């Protein structure tokens, strides 16, 4: 018998214009909240082809397994969408600018892993975040970004973990302010925080 925790549950998509996606959508949630599946569904009910911009790097076996599960779900026979995957751990703004087109949505999964990659690479996180927020405003096509909300738990006990939490919170705020549509996922259920203007 398969564990309930490993069975993805498709979150219902809030009613939107079924012919288009908002220019910019942010899907937030905790770990294993269903945010990636929800983001894929938002695109999948509106498009037949899309770009999946993956920021994860398989630095250990557990992360390699997560990446494999995501790939398998996108490639599943029941999937109605053809995904073209681009792997880019650092140069997210430049990659998005090159991939975004009016006729092909882009899904970025995920901003939080991108942030982690930046910190591990010793990049200027504030400058990179500002560059991303500036770039997404002028993208040629619709983008759905996935991010983890990490600031709801206990205060981390190390300076690095606190810096990561703070950078993630500021990044999420910046993207949410620029976004047309923001959804928070909890237990696989979407809560709309910001609706596209009609």
3D architecture notes:
With 198 residues, the chain is α/β, with parallel strands linked by helices. Helices cover 38% and strands 20% of the residues. Helix 3 runs parallel beside helix 5. The chain contains six helices and seven strands. The chain has a seven-stranded mixed β-sheet with strand order 3-2-4-5-1-6-7, with helices on both faces. It has one domain (24-194): 3-Layer(aba) Sandwich (Rossmann fold). Strand 6 and strand 7 (189-194) form a beta hairpin. The chain has helices spanning 35-44, 61-75, 92-99, 111-120, 125-136, 159-178; strands spanning 24-29, 49-54, 82-87, 106-109, 143-148, 181-186, 189-194. Mean pLDDT is 86; it is low at 1-19.
Offer a quick outline of the entry.
The chain has 198 residues and is α/β, with parallel strands linked by helices.
Query: What's the gyration radius in Å?
Result: 16 Å
Query: What are the secondary-structure elements, in order, as H or E?
Result: EHEHEHEHHEHEE
Shape: globular
- CATH class wording: Alpha Beta
What is the straight-line distance between the termini?
46 Å
Please state roughly what percent of the residues sit in beta strands, choosing from under 5%, 5-15%, 15-25%, 25-35%, 35-45% or over 45%: 15-25%
Tally of distinct domains: 1
Sequence of strands across the biggest β-sheet: 3-2-4-5-1-6-7
Treating each run of at least 4 consecutive H or I residues as one helix, how many helices? 6
Helix content: 25-40%
Task: List how many beta strands DSSP finds.
Answer: 7
Q: Main β-sheet, in a few words?
A: 7 strands, mixed
CATH topology: Rossmann fold
Q: What is the residue-averaged pLDDT?
A: 86
Provide the CATH architecture.
Answer: 3-Layer(aba) Sandwich
